[in-house]
Amino acid sequence: MTDQKDDVYGDHISHKFNSELNELKTEFLKMGGMVEAQVEQAVKSLIDSDAELAEKTRLKDKEVDKLEKALDEEATLIIARRQPTARDLRLVISVIKMVADLERVGDEAKKIAKLALKLSEEGQAPRGYVEVRHISEHVLHMLHDSLDAFARLDSVQALQIMKEDKRVDEEYQAAARTLLTFMMEDNRNISRCMSVMGVLRALERVGDHACNIAENVIFMVEGEDVRHTPVEEAEKIVGG
């Protein structure tokens, strides 16, 4: 398997160019940490029926959107000023794509916070919170690892995240079946269970976005586009 790559995105003659690329990476990771915390807090507000935390988490979305615009502008200026080629262009293009995924993770966190507020108002907690806690831990781990893989230029770690995505899909489907059975047993639970289903779906999408980030890390490191590629094929690319 390919070992972790040295950070070659900072060895240019132009110190200014080095600085710009490092700043782009730093700001991307800052945004990643922000949305990671946003998802974690949204889930906590749901589990704890904490309406105040849910509202704070929901409002965080504006900060994420602002950072997305700033990163897009920064990346566009680098392309315009430096006209990067090869590995540098892969970095900048990948950051633009990954920023979009992070923004969508923030959107999913906002949805969870809104549903947490709704469920808090409805009172008694329905079934599904155990599944929410379990899947949230899984996708947050994937998101954290995808950001770590980016920071370390680690295509092996990124490949592992691609493998985890299938497990999250299976966990989501199993949880959805459990909730559907519960709703069929007592139709008074339908409204609240549908809200929990919305939370589970949002978390499943967070896992999808973490996987997208991992795919872009592989593109950065290996120079191969593994989107829509079976994991077995991606293993051959990373294994080189």
From TrEMBL:
SUPFAM superfamilies: PhoU-like. The keyword Isomerase does not apply. It holds the Pfam family PhoU. This is Phosphate-specific transport system accessory protein PhoU. Residues 29-115, 132-217 form the PhoU domain. Homodimer. InterPro entries: PhoU, PhoU-like_sf, PhoU_dom. Belongs to the PhoU family. The keyword Transport applies. Keywords: Cytoplasm, Phosphate transport, Transport. GO terms for biological process: intracellular phosphate ion homeostasis; negative regulation of phosphate metabolic process; phosphate ion transport. It is found in: Cytoplasm. Plays a role in the regulation of phosphate uptake. It comes from Marinobacter persicus. It comes from the Bacteria. GO terms for cellular component: cytoplasm.
